[in-house]
Amino acid sequence: xxxxEEEKIEKQYQKMLKFVRKHNLKxxxxxxxxxxxxxxxxxxxCPCDPSRPVCPCPxxxxxxxKNGKCFxxxxxxxxxxxxxxxxTKNNVNFELEEWNKK
Length: 102
Known about the structure:
By secondary structure, the protein is mainly alpha-helical. The protein has helices at residues 2-22, 33-43, 60-67, 78-85, 88-91; strands at residues 26-27, 75-76.
């Protein structure tokens, strides 16, 4: 059972990672992408909106285009990430995933 859950988490993580890389996005710095994947798998839907059965949801790209981030705030354009989280680079030692360090 544990192995099956780990496989689901890995699959969700890879899906989210592919989305981030394909669209040149950054992620919320307070959780790693793998932690977000674990939350999605455990909840069985978008962690912020139960009416959205998958993550990233179909609405995410449109929300990112309009607002610079998705509804949940997991995925950001680089510009919006810098606006909101840029201060963290010098003031707080967050462990960011590799693509957030670019």
